[in-house]
Amino acid sequence: MRTFTLDVPVQTLLDVVWDVEHYPKFVKGVRKVTILHDGERAREAEFRAGIAGMEFRYVLALERSENSVRWRRLRGSFRDAAGAVIHEGGDTFRYENAMDPGFAAPGFAVRFILERSLPRLIREFCERAKALARERAR
Fold this sequence. Notes:
This protein is of the alpha+beta class. The chain contains 3 helices and 7 strands; from the N terminus they run E-H-H-E-E-E-E-E-E-H. It has helices at 10-18, 23-26, 107-137; strands at residues 2-5, 30-38, 42-51, 54-64, 68-76, 80-89, 92-100. The protein has a 7-stranded antiparallel beta sheet. Strand 4 and strand 5 form a beta hairpin. Helix 1 (10-18) crosses helix 3 (107-137). It is globular.
């Protein structure tokens, strides 16, 4: 879990997180996203991603509310995965992500994810949200 601040309208950041089909454009490691079911507040998407030379395919169910976007693994790589981006008030957000790969992960891999990949992902979301906010302000 990480808390971060971002001075953009709440819905702008949540739009970025919700629009998973655009992830290959700005999220490192995400190669392809296919929307399987698309509703106003719920969707399912299949992801093809890679990290450290390994490829992963998985399907996530996503749910959107006024103050969050949440996801959970339905099938594919990993035993379990779930997370959320939640608006905590003002310009503060919380990013949650839990994953069970289904195998013993070496300590260096866990540290890599916690110290490098997770902050990078938050930074990618923030940069995309700032760009979208500038676009919408025009």
